[in-house]
Amino acid sequence: MDSSELMTKVICGDCEPVLGDFPDNCVDLIVTSPPYADSRKKSYGGIHPDKYVEWFMPKADQFHRVLKPAGTFILNIKEKVVGGERHTYVIELILEMRRRGWFWTEEFIWHKKNCYPGKWPNRFRDAWERCLQFNKTQDFLMYQDAVKIPMGDWRKARLRNLSETDKTRDESKVNSGFGKNISNWVGRSWAYPTNVLHLATECGNRNHSATFPVALPSWFIRLFTKENDLVLDPFAGSGTTGIAAKDLGRNYIGIDINKEFCLLSEKALAKTCFRKAINYEATEPEPRQHIRQHSHW
After folding, report:
1. Across 136-218, where does the E strand assignment appear?
2. How far is Cα 153 from Cα 172, in angstroms, rounded to an integer?
3. Is residue 43 located within the same domain as residue 88?
4. Distance between CA atoms of 281 and 274, rounded to whole angstroms?
5. Which of 46, 221, 230, 252 is the most buried (most CB within 10 A)?
6. Domain that holds residue 51
């Protein structure tokens, strides 16, 4: 596949052989949530936790090849409980990816604000999932200003009367290397976020067994790409990453082995493209043709 063809499309198939036809270094960002161990058996057959790393790594090798040197890979994943304890397949996967040349740059936590209630005899309900950041090098593109958040009203009282200590870099008392100068925040109304993302789960999509909210891939797309960059989701599901990418003016490729989910992705992208066409006073597109023969928005 020539790089000029990599615009926006949904490809039905196993991402490993599909990506084998892609050129090297062609993708700016990979955002995906693969089938978790022993999950989505009806949709994807299920992967035993003990075999998960073996199953995933050939795919990760393709991700590494197609990702640009300054690109980023975001992996949304969560351990499961097996035999009364958390299985270690996610930890084992991280270690194996590092052995294969990936940098494990950061770990973001997705806090599910509206997780389902429940009761278990020896643990509490899961209210968070990992979003692991991997890079090919330690020099990668990152647009931090794109995800700034309001500082909040606390600054009005806290910054009104500064002490002498507030006006210098106050080093940590435990010699951790961390320090702060409170006076640097005077006059600012925006701040950089933390690595914990407080987002509600997606409740509107009843056609897919595990849907994350559009806000999740959207946040990472804003942080790690600019307009017209190419975003890849190799386990596209019903197309949530694609919706986020198109809303933000990025190109997108979604791959999924499930034909039903590919159709859902195509419909979702067609609606997104149609909505943007209306916003830009463009001509109404033909949904399926548009997805296969993308033109820039």
Report:
1. 149-150, 170-171, 179-180, 190-191, 196-199
2. 26
3. yes
4. 10
5. 252
6. 3-148+195-292
**Residue 94: CATH number of its domain:** 3.40.50.150
Let me know whether 57 and 172 are in one domain: no
Walk along the chain (297 residues) and give the pLDDT tens digit of each residue. Answer: 554 445 789 999 999 999 999 999 999 999 999 987 765 555 455 789 999 999 999 999 999 999 999 999 999 999 888 888 999 999 999 999 999 999 999 999 999 888 777 777 888 888 899 999 999 999 999 999 999 988 655 555 555 566 655 555 555 555 555 555 555 555 566 788 999 999 887 544 445 445 679 999 999 999 999 999 999 999 999 899 999 999 999 999 999 999 999 998 888 888 876 555 444 333 333 333 333 333 332
Query: Residue-wise over 109-136: b if at least 16 C-beta within 10 A, else e?
Result: ebebeeeeeeeeeeeeeeeebebbbbbb
Same domain, 134 and 155: no
CA 272 to each of CA 245, 268, 284: distance values in angstroms, whole numbers, following the listed order? 10, 6, 12
On whether residue 297 sits in a domain, the answer given is no
Structure tokens at 193: 């976020």
Residue 132 and residue 15 in one domain: yes
Residues 198/227, Cβ–Cβ less than 8 Å:
no
Structure tokens at 68: 């640009």
C-alpha closest to that of 283 among 292, 269, 273, 291: 273
Considering the domain architecture, whether residues 30 and 130 belong to the same structural domain is answered as yes
Question: For residues 203 and 226, is the Cβ–Cβ distance under 8 A?
Answer: no
